[in-house]
Design brief:
alpha/beta; Rossmann fold; 2 domains; five-stranded parallel β-sheet; NADPH binding; quinone reductase (NADPH) activity; mRNA 3'-UTR binding; ER
Length: 243
């Protein structure tokens, strides 16, 4: 099979195509024939050296496809299943989504509903797992709380808006372009603010009211963290997804 490997920092020229044997799944692993691969900022940031970590071999942590083979101890998946996945660790042979096949632990693989295409499935892993970790695991979000998704038009932002609505939160979002603002509105945010506009933080503060904001999902903490602190309710949390 063909895979893309990256062994040194650089631009797209650092990505090299190699031919390797199709990996063999271990007892608790699943072999997936990939139909679509997720591309996330972390992949390019690691590749160009801005992430503070050596390049992975090969890159890519999420994708979607069809189960080709299962290990002896795999019970919840079978050959032919449509799936998407998100790996906790993409390093090593047989791992990494920039390939025709990938081996994953069975608990990293999830059924892909018939309503979703493989392309849509490949966009679920990193963005939606990140949003879930922020709001549910770390934020302990509860119905009736107010959340501000700061940078809501990106993949993690859209996932956070959708998840916030599902959890019964009052959702405030920001975006910096007319297209982004419209996208956030379409995903169900209660209020959307233009973060390229001077004074938008004061608009958010007025909308949140005296109580303040319970949760902030932050995509650019190096620029926004200081002002975020002035928006917070008592015992609130700022959930930093990206520096």
């Amino acid at each position: 099979m063909e895979v893309i490997r990256v062994s040194e920092f650089g631009d797209s020229n650092a990505m090299k195509v190699q031919n390797l044997p199709v990996p063999i799944p271990q007892e608790t692993q699943v072999l997936i024939r990939l139909r679509a691969t997720g591309v996330n900022p972390a992949d390019s940031n690691i590749q160009n050296g801005t992430y503070g970590k050596r390049p992975k071999l090969p890159p890519g942590k999420d994708g979607a496809g069809i189960v080709e083979r299962v290990g002896e101890l795999v019970k919840k998946l079978k050959v032919g299943d449509r799936v998407f996945y998100c790996q906790r660790n993409g390093d090593g042979d047989g791992k990494g989504a920039y390939a025709h096949y990938v081996c994953c632990d069975q608990d990293e693989v999830f059924p892909l509903g018939e309503r979703l295409s493989f392309t849509q499935g490949a966009a679920l892993g990193v963005p939606y797992m990140t949003a879930y970790r922020a709001l549910v695991i770390k934020g302990e979000a509860a119905a009736g709380q107010t959340v501000l998704v700061h940078g809501a038009s990106g993949s993690v932002g859209i996932a956070s808006v959708q998840l916030g609505r599902f959890l019964g939160l009052k959702v405030l979002g920001t975006a910096g372009t007319p297209e982004g603002i419209q996208a956030v509105k379409e995903q169900g945010a209660d209020f959307v603010f233009d973060h390229s506009k001077p004074g938008y933080m004061e608009e958010i503060k007025n909308t949140a009211g005296e109580k303040g904001i319970d949760l902030i999902v932050e995509m650019l903490s190096n620029a926004n963290l200081g002002e975020n602190l002035g928006l917070l309710a008592s015992r609130a949390k700022v959930l930093v997804c990206k520096m």
